[in-house]
Design goal:
The chain contains eight helices and ten strands. With about 220 residues, it is of the alpha/beta class. The strands form two sheets. The protein has a six-stranded mixed β-sheet. A four-stranded antiparallel β-sheet has the order 2-1-4-5, covered by helices on one side. Strand 9 and strand 10 form a beta hairpin.
Length: about 220
């Protein structure tokens, strides 16, 4: 469960105060695929950074699985991001000299899990997202855009996170492949019992979500 209470993020710009996120409240149950839609400059990136504990709000509270993220110190935040949060990016962000399998194993190795255990889970996750045995041993350059995004999604699930944040996850894909990725995210939210929040400017993705929110001028509405 993701619970956000009246979070605000303010920046000083000269003698002006810019409210990038302005009193956002949000509740997303576990197993739900939700989408936040908004135009460029609406505050989507700032909100995603706050939810992912990459930045701290000026005011308000963010709870993931009943843990108040805003109260964690830097060391605990680092562990939290490693073990409790998964990220999916528009540009995939796969490491080019590692195979698909090695890319998915990497977060588990950082978390101190054994090699054999990491390999087993990586193989399982890649199979779940439709990356076959042969393709698991290919480097990103030998995979299509849709396949690379599937690998990125599998990697985000590696440490069984409570929350997955997806930043324009279909931005580099054609509409058919984009729909397949969204359908996959919806299925994985339920199968892996995780909460998924995607931000996008694409209204067609919003129609496929379990819950849709709109962000405009830092304010969120349903």
């Amino acid at each position: 469960m993701l619970k956000v209470e009246n979070i605000k993020k303010e920046f000083a710009s000269g003698d002006q105060i810019v409210k990038a996120v302005d009193g956002v409240n949000l509740n997303v149950p576990t197993g739900t695929f939700s989408v936040i839609v908004g135009k460029s400059g609406s505050g989507k990136s700032t909100l995603l950074s706050l939810l992912g504990a990459l930045d701290k709000p000026t005011f308000g509270k963010i709870e993931v699985d009943d843990e108040d993220v805003t109260k964690l110190n830097d060391r605990k935040l680092s562990l939290y991001r490693c073990k409790k949060i998964g990220f999916v990016f528009q540009g995939y962000n796969l490491i080019p000299n590692l195979t698909a399998l090695e890319n998915v194993m990497l977060p588990m190795e950082f978390a101190g899990k054994g090699l054999e255990r990491s390999k087993k889970r990586a193989e399982k996750l890649l199979a779940e997202v439709g990356i076959t045995d042969q393709k698991q041993n290919r480097k990103p350059s030998r995979l299509s855009g849709g396949e690379q995004q599937r690998v990125a999604i599998a990697r985000s699930l590696a440490n069984q996170p409570k929350l997955i944040l997806a930043d324009e996850p279909t931005g580099n894909l054609d509409s058919k492949t984009g729909k397949l990725i969204v359908d996959l995210l919806r299925k994985l939210a339920k199968d892996e019992k995780t909460t998924i929040v995607a931000v996008t400017h694409d209204d067609s993705i919003a129609k496929l979500a379990d819950v849709t929110f709109t962000l405009k001028d830092g304010k969120l509405s349903k």
